[in-house]
Design brief:
single chain; 164 residues; alpha+beta; 60s Ribosomal Protein L30, Chain: A; 4-stranded mixed β-sheet; 5 helices; 15% strand; globular
């Protein structure tokens, strides 16, 4: 009899544990905990799922195979979110004059923009700027830091997820 009573309580306890399902909690923008992750079409979505930057060789503005692969993914992503506008910022390492690096950064931003446009992205959705050597992403005066700072970074401008 005791074993039946203990067995019945154990079965009841197991059923009670299985019967309750946690309710999703809402977070800041009305998303539920079950749908966590970047908002589609957002900067976080671009960074996490596509990649937001391409890198260049020293004193160059031509696209490497790796840059072409990243920009191809960016073009497809931009086609998926036609309401998104982007800024492509060209950057350089610390070597060279301010004027030279501003011009080189602009050539890098233009190379990325031109590739995206060639892949079918409307040019009116892409703005470019050069920061030259003024906005390094890596600090240091060595090749590792310089390589990280020779880039073109794509960023989402004015994205509104409720506009869909």
């Amino acid at each position: 009899m005791k074993f039946r009573l203990i067995g019945a309580f154990a079965a009841l306890a197991l059923l009670a544990a299985c019967a309750t399902t946690p309710k999703p909690t809402t977070t800041g923008a009305g998303a539920t905990a079950a749908t966590q992750g970047p908002v589609p079409g957002s900067q976080q979505d671009l960074v996490q799922n596509v990649g937001d930057r391409v890198f260049f060789a020293f004193d160059m503005s031509n696209l490497s195979e790796e840059a072409v692969a990243t920009l191809t993914r960016q073009a497809a992503w931009l086609q998926k979110y036609p309401e998104v506008k982007v800024l492509v910022a060209g950057n350089c390492d610390e070597r060279g004059t301010e004027e030279y690096n501003l011009a080189l950064g602009q050539r890098r931003a233009n190379a990325a923009r031109d590739f995206l446009v060639a892949k079918g992205v409307d040019p009116s959705r892409i703005e470019t700027i050069s920061y030259g050597k003024d906005r390094p992403v890596a600090l240091g005066s060595n090749e590792q830091a310089w390589a990280q700072n020779r880039n073109a970074i794509t960023s989402v401008q004015g994205f509104n997820p409720q506009a869909k």
